[in-house]
Design goal:
Helix 4 crosses helix 5 and helix 5 runs parallel beside helix 6. A 6-stranded antiparallel β-sheet has the order 1-2-6-5-4-3, covered by helices on one side. A 6-stranded mixed β-sheet has the order 7-8-9-10-11-12, covered by helices on one side. It is built from 6 helices and 12 strands. The chain has 268 residues and is of the alpha+beta class. The protein is globular, with a radius of gyration of 20 Å.
């Protein structure tokens, strides 16, 4: 049985710790469905002919439990999130059909979809940082960098600019000016570093900062969803696999969040 929103209230036949692989669930819905890579560890499939409630029910009966996530206001998507032992599954109903997206289950990143006792409280300070140009003087790309100081004193960074010394110094100096909170061993606490897209005037400062100044910060989450193949971004030969390798090298212990449309994420 389903309610008016199409969400199944059937009892799973398999406990979450024994949930079937998403590929198997999808193939049961549509044997000809084409599964695509949309990240180094994320897969996506568009189901054209299946009923929305049927898709949700298939994952529920395969052992996936729903997550009571926060949805963005005024979104055109209907989104459901479920989890099993090994995977988190995001289902999205669109005008084209229904998307099923899955990635390895991570309870830490999944918890960011849930509001906490601090959500909506405290004050946030925003600093907009100019993007320095060196060899990029004649480059038409504008770049972007914002740093938020959250009410707990930690920072959230959006993009960052080019990979040059000036952009790196701008970021570090702004962390100092905002008096961002530090860990016990004196590192600036960056809760999340978020990227709007993969062009170098937005994401290149991240790896340069990590290589040269990564020992001065503690970074918890990085959020992005870049194409995996070089050249798939317009006017870019960006290699997202190499970017990810450097991310883990320069920021030990960081966790990668693959964001999905329609969902709200809660940091501190």
């Amino acid at each position: 049985q389903t309610d008016s929103q199409g969400a199944s209230d059937a009892t799973p036949t398999i406990p979450p710790e024994q949930a079937l692989p998403p590929e198997q669930v999808v193939q049961g819905l549509d044997a000809d469905a084409v599964i695509m890579e949309i990240g180094t560890s994320t897969r996506q499939v568009l189901l054209y002919d299946n009923d929305w409630a049927e898709i949700q029910n298939a994952f529920t009966m395969a052992g996936y439990a729903p997550v009571d996530v926060t949805l963005l206001d005024n979104t055109k998507l209907e989104t459901k999130v479920l989890y099993g032992k090994d995977f988190t599954v995001t289902l999205q109903k669109t005008q084209d059909g229904a998307y099923a997206i899955w990635e390895p289950y991570n309870p830490s990143t999944l918890s960011l979809l849930l509001p906490n006792e601090k959500t909506g409280t405290g004050e946030v300070t925003l600093a907009q940082i100019g993007i320095a140009r060196v060899e990029e003087v004649d480059n038409p790309l504008n770049g972007m960098c914002y740093i938020y100081k959250l009410s707990d004193g930690s920072a959230v960074i959006i993009d960052g600019g080019f990979n040059n010394k000036e952009c790196r110094n701008n970021i570090l100096n702004t962390l100092k000016k905002l008096d961002i909170a530090k860990t016990d061993d004196g590192k600036y606490r960056i809760t999340a570093w978020i990227f709007s897209h993969g062009h170098k005037d937005h994401r290149a400062a991240f790896t340069g900062f990590g290589k040269n100044m990564g020992d001065q910060v503690e970074l918890t989450y990085v959020m992005y969803n870049f194409p995996t193949s070089p050249g798939t971004l317009t006017a870019s030969t960006f290699d997202s696999v190499n970017f990810e390798n450097k991310m883990y090298e320069y920021y030990p212990g960081v966790q990668h969040i693959v964001p999905h449309a329609g969902l709200a994420y809660h940091f501190d």
